[in-house]
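Reminder: ligand-aware prediction takes two inputs, not one.
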Amino acid sequence: MININYNLEMENLIKDFKGDKKLLLHCCCGPCSTAVITRLKNFFNVTVYYYNPCIHPQEEFEKRRDEQIKFINELNKTEKRHIKVIVPTYNTKTYFDAVSKVENYETLPEGKERCYACYEERLKQTAIFAKENGYEFFGTTLSVSPYKHSNWLNEIGLRLEKEIGVKFLVADFKKKDGYKLSQELSKKYNLYRQNYCGCVYSLKNSNCKNE
Ligand code: SF4
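Here is what comes back for the chain with iron/sulfur cluster:
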């Protein structure tokens, strides 16, 4: 398998961007978004897309959503930014429709094929919304986590770029100590950090890891 440095690819791509290009950024939670938005905020006009039908139960979805909004409100206030947060209606059917096509999806640990389907569903809906609403790029925070496969995320994103017709921001946000930065910024902004990835299976699975 070819080892592509997606972080370097992103840096080369965006180095001359001045902050006016519209990016729809899929965000899985406030803590992960801190490090990613810190890296991108001067290169893009960022809109947060909190699309996470995988999260169980609904109260947890709402808790993470509220932390996401809290972080963006604080950033907008202290840095005089105008980052928006879009929250599509919580509907777990799209998640279960996607992952139930995977064999043994209920018993697989985090990081296996169920997660590929979960990444794909979240990125697909982000790409469709970006295309329909005039964004130049779509991307995701997911690669900041050491428990998420950056090669899968970039493979899916680049395929959707071709299929849907909106550019995907290749990335590997865990590089350059991205995960450590997300931990530090979560403390700074006093954000709740969950101890399981999100779905009912990761909640049940003792092997699940913190996002
Ligand atoms: S463990 Fe995380 S990435 Fe995998 S299916 Fe569950 S919510 Fe999605």
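The chain has one domain: 6-204. Residues 58-79 form the longest helix (22 residues). We will return to this case in the review session.
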